[in-house]
UniProtKB/TrEMBL annotation, chain A:
Organism field: Streptomyces rhizosphaericus
Cofactors required: [3Fe-4S] cluster
Gene3D superfamilies: 3.30.70.20
InterPro entries in UniProt: 3Fe4S_ferredoxin, Divergent_4Fe-4S_mono-cluster, Fe-S_cluster_ET
Name of this protein: Ferredoxin
Lineage, highest ranks first: Bacteria, Bacillati, Actinomycetota, Actinomycetes, Kitasatosporales
Length: 68, 399
């Protein structure tokens, strides 16, 4: 499982940093997403799905491994 | 009928309970993915009441938030012709919108707004000192909920306290849909008079605050700095204030939920999210207009037609939430659209969360016997404002 975050698409709404502060932060400069851990434990799948669903611009994507 | 199966509706506004959305939304949400709506004056347009369609619309590239194409879903004399003022980014589209917004987003991150908690706590407690002195028995709106968010934003931009009260009245007039044109013009002129005094002074002597940072960045003209300052003031003043008041009113009228919160303060974060969902004070929703003919939710939306997303209805969609009409501060399934969705999602949302958390906590901690000072049905609501909440909230407590 791998997360990608597109800082160009990000509008700095901070949903990711609110929901999963151990995986996402926001830059001090413009608040855009900073990925802290691109390959988290599969146990975090539910929370990551929530992050993806709540990201208001679709900047965060989750690549789940086949069968995951 | 030979025409459309459902004739166009007006925006539902009649509520049978102050805490629930207008009753008229429920049948509309059950009927169709998108509803024909007749805007004031008979202009045809659309209404979205379902969660999935709302998210899709608010991120759809064929729909614009630009001021010049938006019409109010409810009757009002206040109409804004032409594009938004330079720097007033809320009613623009990207890339103009993001150019301005990105200059201030760094101040409103989750981390930065949490770091503001000591400043917010100081202001909250000063206002609660005033409340204590005023009572037992006082209007919570006047003494507490209206003042806290405006004081916080004034500190963040560097607006002197001496200007705050009059700015508060201007923002209120411009947010009241029943304001007359002369009233609105007086408010606009009061606001621009302040900006024309304040912004140039700070350009000569930038301080260590948001405005100072924008000035030192050197990317904005005086006009743009004025537009940005006005956007921050209007965005912060009556939004969080109404939410603060509405949340207190709601908790007082849902004593089981208040007791649950007082028994377990750890629930505060979830309680704030649930109140944002349940109350959705942006009760007139979010409107967009079609930049081109577009197929959406099984209908053809014609170029120029306006679509209003009924955020209060969307946040009660049973397809999305279990028991949507039940206030449950223990709810873990958030993801509401109370703060919007898409690139325009509320800039100050994490600041609002911090103010709400600190505000509710301190209020119920210092006034554990807080209760309404009048019967609930005597509380008058701001139905005719852009943001919903109690006009005043008489409360009392044991001395």
């Amino acid at each position: 499982m791998r997360i990608t975050a597109d800082r160009e698409v990000c509008c700095a709404a901070g949903q990711c940093a609110l929901i999963a502060p151990d995986l996402f932060d926001q830059s001090d400069e413009d608040g855009s997403v900073v990925l802290l851990d691109a390959q988290p434990d599969t146990g975090r799948l539910d929370v990551l799905r929530e992050v993806v669903s709540r990201c208001p611009t679709g900047a965060i994507r989750l690549e789940e491994e086949p069968g995951a | 009928m030979v025409d459309a199966p459902h004739p166009p509706v007006s925006l539902p506004t009649k509520r049978s309970c102050p805490f629930d959305p207008p009753d008229g939304y429920t049948p509309l949400r059950e009927q169709e993915r998108i509803t024909h709506m007749s805007y004031p004056g008979g202009t045809p347009g659309w209404l979205v009441t379902r969660h999935a369609e709302a998210k899709e619309l608010l991120t759809h590239k064929s729909f614009s938030a630009r001021q010049e194409g938006i019409i109010s879903p409810v009757p009002t004399e206040l109409a804004y012709d032409g594009p938004a003022d330079p720097g007033a980014f809320a009613k623009t589209d990207d890339p103009v919108h993001s150019k301005y917004r990105k200059l201030v987003t760094g101040f409103f991150t989750v981390r930065r707004t949490r770091q503001l908690a000591p400043m917010i706590e100081r202001i909250v407690h000063e206002q609660l000192d005033d409340l204590e002195k005023a009572g037992p028995g006082a209007d919570l709106v006047e003494v507490f909920t209206e003042s806290v968010p405006s004081r916080v934003m004034c500190e963040m931009i560097g607006v002197p306290e001496s200007e705050r009260r009059s700015l508060q009245r201007h923002v209120e007039t411009l947010g009241r849909l029943s304001s007359t044109v002369p009233e609105a013009l007086a408010a606009v002129s009061g606001m621009s008079g302040f900006l024309a005094r304040f912004v140039p002074t700070r350009m000569d002597d930038p301080r260590d605050d948001i405005l100072g940072d924008l000035i030192r960045g050197g990317q904005l003209t005086e006009q743009e700095l004025m537009g940005m300052t006005a956007t921050l003031i209007t965005g912060a003043f009556d939004t969080t204030g109404n939410m603060l008041a509405m949340g207190v009113y709601t908790l007082l009228e849902h004593p089981d939920q208040l007791a649950k919160l007082q028994a377990d303060p750890e629930l505060m974060g979830a309680a704030v999210e649930e109140l944002l969902r349940f109350l959705t004070i942006s009760h007139l929703g979010a409107s967009r207009w079609a930049l081109e003919d577009v197929e959406f939710a099984g209908q053809t939306i014609k170029k120029g037609e306006v679509v209003t997303v009924a955020l209060p209805a969307v946040n009660r969609d049973p397809e999305r939430y279990e028991n949507p009409d039940q206030l449950d501060i223990g709810r873990t399934d958030h993801g509401h659209l109370g703060l919007g969705h898409g690139v325009h999602q509320c800039l100050g949302q994490h600041l609002a969360r911090t103010i709400l958390r600190v505000g509710y906590e301190a209020l119920f901690d210092r006034f554990p016997t807080l209760r309404l000072g009048v019967p609930s049905d005597e509380i008058r609501m701001r139905d005719d404002f852009v943001h919903y909440g109690p006009r005043s909230l008489p409360v009392t407590w044991d001395d």
